[in-house]
Amino acid sequence: MQARIKWVENVAFLGETGSGHAVLMDGAAEGGGRNLGPRPMELVLIGTGGCAAYDVVHILKKSRAGISDCVAEIQAERADTDPKVFTKIHFHFIVTGKNLKPELVERAINLSAEKYCSASIMLGKTATITHDFEIRET
């Protein structure tokens, strides 16, 4: 895996992925930025949420569950002093489908958290990570 980060101006940077995608990161105006893009730590959360949600959907589909949607809402807290690592992260999964069994959804979330999601397992070295979920019927 590769990435390239190029300084654009002030506190704005362009991140380019090895797969050919780009994202502009920037800081808030009070930090010298122009708020042109997400903060790097926001991208860490988005990436982690994407990793976990991917796992949950994949596991449920493999189990032949009738899943039609999955949303991961994430709340996080960071340390007050540098390095301002994440200290608490909570995932709330909203899984929509037909006749979804709670035990199957819980199993998918636990497998992601404990075995498959590299990002959340890595962040778990500094943060307490919790999960909950709700099921919505289609």
TrEMBL record:
SUPFAM superfamilies to which the protein is assigned, alphabetical: OsmC-like (SSF82784)
Pfam assignment, any one: OsmC
UniProt superkingdom: Bacteria
Signal peptide location: none
Protein's recorded name: Peroxiredoxin
